[in-house]
């Protein structure tokens, strides 16, 4: 996967951010700790290719090396179910599906690199055990990404249309269920555990139509739900055309379109994942149902409610 990055950026990062040159501020925090949860990552919306690579890949290599030096025994990574998603339908996808050959964006590409590093570092004989948790569509109270961005788009009149027929099922995961999955991973990770060195999908285990989920958030905050349909392939081709225009114009002007092929694919395809491995090996069951999760999330954002 490294090969997809352009060589000038790789050379720059290698010269200026070699692992051995990074001041090891982590060591004092990790010394004497038995279990580390690695959750750090830039937000996907930042669209900063070099930052993704430095944090998700180079930074993770630094975390692994420091964990080993500090005597940490368990490392649990917050990965993403999107590492196997290529913009086409996935229905009840398992962890046995291969990593995406054509990831949907640079963020996901570096998450693949990151997960490979963490799972590859699993060493039962050396008393260093690793596991990756793959949530999808994390949301919940005080979420700084999904709900605020959705409401901002609604305020600008950009949530009138839905892509496709509105029937595509997607996994969303309440934050407390994500935390529960991490805790179970730490409890079950041991030298003789079958899950050592493996990835686990952790979702609400209740696939929901993508546009139904967004509509419930919007109407819960007194905004109108999308009601007009745009054919999926029409929207995708339009997004590809816009991406081509942006690429041609890049030497003259920097444009940052929000209507991209990746976002069209996320909004218009099926992508939901099986939690059977987590249920079988970790004893995972969602603690908070989708109905309760949406209600609690909407309640926490009442300050964003539209006032007529």
TrEMBL record:
GO terms for molecular function: 3-beta-hydroxysteroid dehydrogenase [NAD(P)+]/C4-decarboxylase activity. It is found in: Endoplasmic reticulum membrane; Lipid droplet. Its main location: endoplasmic reticulum. Pathway: Steroid biosynthesis; zymosterol biosynthesis; zymosterol from lanosterol: step 4/6. GO terms for biological process: cholesterol biosynthetic process. Its EC number is 1.1.1.170. InterPro entries: 3Beta_OHSteriod_DH/Estase (IPR002225), Lipid_A_modif_metabolic_enz (IPR050177), NAD(P)-bd_dom_sf (IPR036291). One of its GO terms (cellular component) is lipid droplet. Residues 24-227 form the 3-beta hydroxysteroid dehydrogenase/isomerase domain. It is a single-pass membrane protein. Belongs to the 3-beta-HSD family. This is Sterol-4-alpha-carboxylate 3-dehydrogenase, decarboxylating. It comes from Mustela putorius furo.
